[in-house]
Amino acid sequence: MSFADLGLSDEVLKAVSDAGYTDPTPIQEQAIPYVLMGRDILGCAQTGTGKTAGFTLPMIDILASGRARARMPRTLILEPTRELAAQVAENFEVYGKYHSLAKALIIGGSSMGDQVKILDRGVDVLIATPGRLLDLFERGGLLLNDVKILVIDEADRMLDMGFIPDVEKIVSVIPKIRQTLFFSATMPNEIRRLADAFLMNPKEISVSPPASTGENISQNLVMVDHQNKRDLDGLHKAKRDMLRKLIGSEKVKNALIFCNRKRDVDILHKTLKRHGFNSATLHGDMSQPARTETMERFKADKITLLVCSDVAARGLDINDLSHVFNYDVPLHAEDYVHRIGRTGRAGRLGRAFTLAWREDKKYIDAIQHLTGKAIPIFNADKKAAAKPEKKPAEKEPAEKVATKSKPKQAVGDDKPRKATRPVKAKKPKKAEQPKKAAEYHKADRDVDSGKPVRGMGDHVPAFLSNGSK
Ligand code: AMP
Predict the structure, then answer these.
(1) Is 449 in the pocket of ligand 1 (CB under 6 A)?
(2) Distance in Å, CA 441 to ligand 1 centroid
(3) Which of 86, 105, 177, 277 shows a CA-CA span of 20 to 30 A to 131?
């Protein structure tokens, strides 16, 4: 089936062809004709399947007729994170380039002033995170009684982040006669219940996850040798050593490195920097402008390693990401699929490495159960020994050196690498102090919601709790 068979306008087809897409993805094939017909959709699909275009393309055509009124958006798209919201807005730019639709983005962490001015003039599409939208609504900044299409994206993530009460409130003030498009990567009972409440006779569409556990991602499990449950510092040091060793032995063009806790994001980033790697962080404590700037630099290849938390990096669309490293095994198996699905996109090859130690077994088992595949064990020592060490090119900028050269010092040494260290950075002494489970736990709140978030929060594994006693 081609895009031309889906009932889209010539303008949208031209924008799609300008974007370089030749064929619709399965979710686009299935969803677009039904959205154009005005049907509700219950879509079980993840990011990476092309679901954003699956709802934005037909929405653009539906919106082409009619006009928005001041403060009364005609369509509303709810996204769990600012990054996803911003990405959807970008999609409207790309696919709506031959239309003149007005859109506003209401997300936490950035000043609302300009967006509210745009809203005042009338918008066709409002893309928002639930908390910030409700805030604005309750202050009388907008009216929702002209919303004709409601999109609830990543519903399971909304649930994890504690946004469902906000979503329910928002839905309660939107007209009952509307079209609702509801997407979720998974369909636990709670999400089903919401879908039943929000949707009328929906067309159910389910597409298999993207190639996240498919052929074009090579998955690797790297066992870190550490025995003492009480020595968490030792464990983290061994993990950092192993990570650097892996980065040194792999051809890393660019990589996301996932940590379960924000605190570890910072610590890991600092030690990577001390070792001369070109790293930056992305997590929920950063201001929106800082997050946007970091993402732009990463996408422009000015940053090689981005150490991040699940929430901040969820759904990020990065072209040609060569590697994903799981510094921590995700505590929820679905997060594993989301994390490694950042690489190996659009038919490219990707490599994913997950560092684990013996106490992570139950999480690894859960991942293997979910994906139905064993993650092959990767022997880092063998790999590193097989590859001769390359000298970094003399004049190469530090950014490039960071991933092209191998760490100079012996594995197990957490000290700076003099040869490639670009600036003399202070030792982050405090961060390296022994940590207690309670300390890990304290940092595990997402500032967007102030609530615990999945994969970084309340699920402190037994070994951490034991270690603190
Ligand atoms: P999404 O699942 O919406 O996050 O989309 C994942 C990626 O697929 C994005 O980079 C899109 O630009 C891209 N994409 C969406 N539809 C298509 C298509 N029909 N052909 C090729 N790439 C696509």
Answers:
(1) no
(2) 36
(3) 177
